[in-house]
Each structure stands twice: as C-alpha cells, then as structure tokens.
Design goal:
By secondary structure, the protein is of the alpha+beta class. It has three helices and nine strands; from the N terminus they run E-E-H-E-H-E-E-E-H-E-E-E. The protein has helices at 23-30, 41-72, 94-105; strands spanning 2-5, 18-20, 36-38, 76-81, 83-84, 87-88, 114-115, 124-133, 136-146. Strands 4-9-8-7 form a four-stranded mixed beta sheet. A three-stranded antiparallel beta sheet has the order 2-1-3, with helices on one face. It is elongated and about 75 Å long. The N and C termini lie far apart (72 Å).
C-alpha cells in the first residue's frame, strides 16, 4: 500500500514523502496515530501542489538572498567602539554587527549567521561573512572606528 507521510517516521521516511508499506502497518499503526494518509489520487494531487508551492517558495527565497548578497558586498558597515589608541575595550561581536546591519542597511540578520574573524579587538577594517541562505553568503566590509 502506498501512503503519504504526514510527519517524519523513523526508519520509514520524511514528512510529505510517498512510501510503500504493508497494509497492516498502515492500518494498525500509521493511520490511527495520524502519521500518514492513503495515497489516493486526491491526496497525491494535494501533495504535488504542496511540493510545487514549496519549490516556488524556496526559489523566491534564493532569489531574494542573491539580491541581498549583491547589495551587502558593495557596502561597508561602520561600528563605533570605545578603546584606547589602537586597542578596544572588549571586542566587536556578531550581535553588534547584526545591529549595525539592521540600523545602517535595513537588513535583519540573525547574529548566529555572522561569522567573524578570530577576534576583532583592534580598530581597523575586517571582512565578515554573513550567511543568507544555504550555499549563499556575502562578504561584508566591517570598519571599526573610535567613538568621539
């Protein structure tokens, strides 16, 4: 019997996947626990529409990430930090870079998606990598300047 999984089932498959199982397994385990539905023509059409919509959504997200990458790679983010002569009091973190991107550029980026050089503890220019989408990342110029 073919069934469409409604959620991930260990050792069987992932959500929205079409799998073959024995009739007893489907009737006695999968259907009562609402883990799957029978793969009839109506449910297959719904699955195809869902997969097409998901593919379209992912394509739009990827397109948007590529546009953001083009804009981010042309910009320089400036952060003002306290320090003495050449050294900072502390270090510049991903959180500060995310806040600067949000305030200066209008891009909301999660601080966990920003990979910083080993340590930004001095004034100067650095290159920071921002992950926008799987396999798409932008290199942003970071300029750390003294507070006035």
């Amino acid at each position: 019997m073919e069934v469409i999984l409604l959620s991930d089932v260990k050792a069987l498959g992932k959500k929205n996947q079409l799998v073959k199982v024995s009739d007893g397994y489907a009737r006695n385990f999968l259907f009562p626990k609402k883990l799957a539905v029978e793969a009839n023509s109506v449910n297959k059409n719904v699955l195809e529409q869902h997969n097409a919509a998901e593919a379209h959504r992912k394509a739009e997200e990827k397109k948007q990430a590529l546009e953001q990458k083009a804009v981010l790679e042309k910009t320089t983010v400036t952060i003002k930090a306290k320090g003495s002569q050449a050294k900072l009091f502390g270090a510049v973190t991903g959180k500060e870079v995310a806040e600067a991107l949000s305030s200066q550029m209008g891009f909301d980026v999660d601080k966990k998606k920003i990979s910083m050089p080993d340590s930004v503890k001095n004034y100067g220019e650095y290159t920071v990598e921002v992950k926008l989408y799987p396999e798409i990342s932008a290199k942003v110029q970071l300029k750390v300047v003294p507070m006035e």
